[in-house]
Amino acid sequence: MASNTSELKVAVAEPRSWARRLTITVPGERVQRERQEVARQFAKRVRLPGFRQGKVPTAIVERQFGAAIEQEAVERVVREAYREALEREQFQPITQGEVENIDYSPGSDLTFDVEFEIRPVIELNRLGGFEIRRERPEVTEDEVDRVIERVRQQQAVWRPVEGESPVDGDAVAVEITPLGAGSEGAKPRQYHIVLGAGEAVPAVEAAIRTLKPGEENEFTLELPDPEAGEGATRQDRARIKLLEVRRPELPELDDEFARSVGDFEDLATLRQKVREDLEKEADAEAERGVRQRLLDAIIEANPFDVPSSLVNQYLQRLISPRPGADPARVAEAMEVARPAAEQALRRIMVIERVAELEGLHATSAEVDARVEEIAQRQGRPVGEVWAQLQKTGQLTRLEEEITEDKVFEYLKSQSTIV
Length: 418
Fold this sequence. Notes:
Number of helices: 11
Strand content: 15-25%
Order of helices and strands: EEEHHEEEHEEEHEEHHHHHHHE
Radius of gyration: 35 Å
Helix content: 40-55%
Largest sheet: 5 strands, antiparallel
Structural class: alpha+beta
């Protein structure tokens, strides 16, 4: 398509679904007017021997600064013509336009290409008629037991152990001194480890278990060797001294324990509360699965591409490489994560598009009601909660959550959830 005016000609091409390439033609008269304006500004600014500032004849300015004048004039014309073309064609780029193929000679029209990416307006021709499985595992008594045992571990009192070797579950303080090649003069370093928790390599833990508090010995250790490949090992020597052993003394699993960890009448009440929480978590996980499978079904029925610039921005936020990180490793990590990032962005874009098409964005009244609900649950004034949410940026996220809930309620009503 093309748009013609007496001033500017714009031809629009779509090299990709989310990209636009404009070929812009600017009349030579407009370029010449801009060139004359630039020349006048140069004449006001330059200082030349024999002339007062601002009084240098235009012909002399042209002779000495002609190339610079022309370059600045062309840059100004390109910049202004690009801005004008965007307004006329009603484009809102999400990337900086890349200007190419500038073609101009004095007395002729100026033409150039500029390419940029736009946020795609995706077509969703099918939003329903899918059969989506809700997968929700049952909460077992073993899971309840595991949660209560974790709470019990957190309430443990750690008692010093003397005269016996540590066992799994004990917290130990050790001093390790490297003795292998290249470790001459190495100083001992202290470590605090819970045995059996995977905090140290198995060979080190096995060596520690042979010692009693205050004892030390030299060991040949089988250690991982990442440089030799995955699963490779190497042997190294070290002196290990066991400084301290502490063993957890767990509280009895009874009604008194239940009352000590919260407002529970007895152990049965605590177990019931744990089960209720696990049931809620299972329901939430099942709902997340339904939503993800529903979005994936919509994307499969309405395939579309995602702008590479959006994917790159998403990956930068996701991976957030540290200063000084190896660029090759960062690039490799981004390539591995790219397919998942593209799919995540597709899901986000589908939610936004459905909200727009069906008028499902959160209303002010809905946001107010949600804030009041939070304030009531926390026992705080509504104004205080509102101010905190706004200050921390969570108010926007709250609006997004309400919109997402409305979108998914609509989408689920269009399909069969099994």
